[in-house]
Amino acid sequence: MRSQPLKGSNLTTVRGINERLVLHLLRLHGALSKAEATRITGLSANAVSVIFRALENEGLLLRGNPVRGRIGQPSVPMRLNPDARYYVGYKIGRRTFDLVVVNFVGEVLSRETAVHDYPTPANTLQFLENNLSSLLQHANISADSVSALNIAMPFELWSWTSDFDAPIQAMNEWREFDLEAAIKKKVDWPVTVQNDGTAACRAELMFGPPLEVQDFVYLFVGTFIGGGIVLNGGVFPGRRGSSGGFGPMRIPDEPGGERLVDHASLVVLEHMVAQRDPELARNLYSQEADWSQLEPELSQWLERAGRSLAHAIVSALAVIDFETVVLDGAFPDAIRNRLVKTVEANLDKLDLQGVERPTLSAGHFSYLARAVGAAAYQISTEYMIDQNTLLRETPSTIFKS
After folding, report:
1. Which run of H or of E encompasses 87?
2. Residues 6+ apart with CB under 8 A from 186
3. Under a CB-based contact definition with an 8 Å cutoff, are residues 192 and 180 in contact?
4. Buried b / exposed e across 235-273, counting CB within 10 Å, b at 16+?
5. Which of 186, 235, 342, 353 has the least C-beta neighbours within 10 A?
6. Domain ranges of the chain
7. Cα(98)–Cα(368) distance, rounded to whole angstroms?
8. First vs last Cα of the chain: how many Å apart?
9. Are 269 and 262 in contact (CB under 8 A)?
């Protein structure tokens, strides 16, 4: 259980919120009986029974096997129905495209990926057109079963083009291109666009193992470095939807640049390896790449990235005293674990006066974190409680079913 459990209300006017609360808790706990849900939420037993029945009738919940106790009626645990909803997530990256189908509990049913030199509106739409039908076929679902298509991408793709060797003229096409409108012409589903780092953070929060904290920093190492912020148990997108864009954070005394993006980004490793083998360098973005071939540059980059990430973590802690930092990236699990250990070792060397050292954890979604997080957008906004939203919305809004 989290340190600050959510509570419900027995008022009938907030039934929509109470249903979200039950779904939220089932996602955290895996399964709950009516008695357990009553105890955790503070709702009446009758209110919980009504909610369970309504959610089951809607196809969102499944009954488990009865658990018999010593006295009374057996309790029946309820859990989320994986097949209640399906979502398509499309990650548009500076070096890769990822397209996934995710079910209601975050399982990836199928995926399509591709490596490219740089994304343009034309090749972004072409990848979707070429792969969407096969994606649904491999997931064994029909187009009518999909609830939404959500996109995760870096905001301002036209920025920092020199850092990943993209032509300015081609990338400037994104300035006036309405991707959401263009994709809505091709599919009949709702379409949303969100920041890729925020999306990856959402995947970890919703589908990763529950953390015993309400606030944490999420760092994702991709072509560039990004991430997200979790406050009060929910993703905090910020005013522009891109809180946790850590790339511009200043890093002291590190040759090669003064920003975090200049050190803890895969494009930095790419450029290092390219001096020895350009083809091998570009291959690191493939999910089938053999990272052992990237030595000795890989070890050099891990140390450089680890030093820079340690500095960035201390800076973040000076703003909000986060209890945990989660680190993930578009690389194999073994590389992620090496990076976590390197960051830990570098935190040992830093002056931590005035801040409390956080727990450092490895993320769980690697290459697909951004696409999975994109797919999860509707689940987060329609079926879960977000205390950050509740705190800033008016009662007339939050009490709507």
Report:
1. strand 86-92
2. 125, 128, 129
3. yes
4. bbbeeeebbbbbbebebeebeeeebbbbbbbbbbbbbbb
5. 353
6. 12-81, 86-199+372-380, 212-363
7. 7
8. 26
9. no
Q: How far, in Å, CA of 278 to CA of 17, rounded? A: 54
How far apart are alpha carbons 342 and 393 in whole angstroms?
A: 42
Query: Does the global pTM surpass 0.85?
Result: yes
Q: How many CB atoms lie within 10 A of CB 362?
A: 16
The CATH fold of domain 86-199+372-380? Nucleotidyltransferase; domain 5 (3.30.420)
Do residues 202 and 234 touch, judged by C-beta distance below 8 A?
A: no
Distance CA 88, CA 371 (A): 8
Q: Establish whether domains 12-81 and 212-363 are of one fold.
A: no
Task: Determine the topology of domain 212-363 in CATH.
Answer: Nucleotidyltransferase; domain 5 (3.30.420)
pLDDT on residue 71:
61
Fold of the domain spanning 12-81: Arc Repressor Mutant, subunit A (1.10.10)
Please list, in sequence order, all residues whose beta carbon lies within 8 angstroms of the beta carbon of residue 218, skipping any fewer than 6 positions away: 197, 200, 201, 204, 205, 227, 228, 229, 230, 244, 325, 326, 328, 363
Which tokens go with 115? 């490596």
